[in-house]
Amino acid sequence: STVLDVSVGEVSIPKGTATLTYSGNQVTASDLNVVYGLGAITGDVQLELDSQRLTGVLRGNDLFVADLVPQLPIVGKIGAEEVTLSGTISEPLLSGRVTGRDILVEGVELAGVVADLKVNGSQVQFENAVAKIGAGTVSASGLVGIASGTGRVEFAIENLPLDKLPVDQELVELAGEVDGSGVFETDATGAWVGSSTLRFEGTEVNDFDAGSGVLQVGIRDGLVTLSGGLSSLQGLVEVPEAIYGLESGDVRGELW
Description:
The chain is mostly beta strands. The chain is 2% helix and 73% strand.
């Protein structure tokens, strides 16, 4: 049996095939195979006709984040070994652990990504999300609307190597580590913006020992703003405000 143009909540399933069997009050879709972008969702689903209750176990392979939630500034693929389906036709709930590879967020490459997800048809909620960036780690939790793309994500970073940041190494060569926390969220226009407080240790900029300190960092429309200061035995570096373009690599601002 072939199923076309099926929607569950606000999630549209573009094309799927399954073997359907009827037994009393229950319909079973076995050997389900749904093409989602360049990836696929497989598994088995049961539906109770009178209550409209759903049960099932699904698996995801090579699913691009942009195909699932195109509003997020995330590039890469995710998969899941076991996702539990529950709820009803009108209010479905998916829950499970997903893993990711080749993930890019605002030009930063993430490796070894894992997260616990819950999808209720209108929004994605994730907890215990952890990713490796070089020798450092990033943890996060939050929720995002599937159709609206609005939401809020809180994050923390630990021992993040500065040389893994998306800067033009021909212009600015960085060394050292950074820790801190912050939030990404949508503003009144629906645009994603970020703000964080970051603590820098052992910082070197083009072989200059900038030392340690705290910077306030913001991200909006592909631009990173910095303000704060660092100090070392070589002196004090104050940053009233500097702006870095993630795509262009352009840097402008003042250092004191």
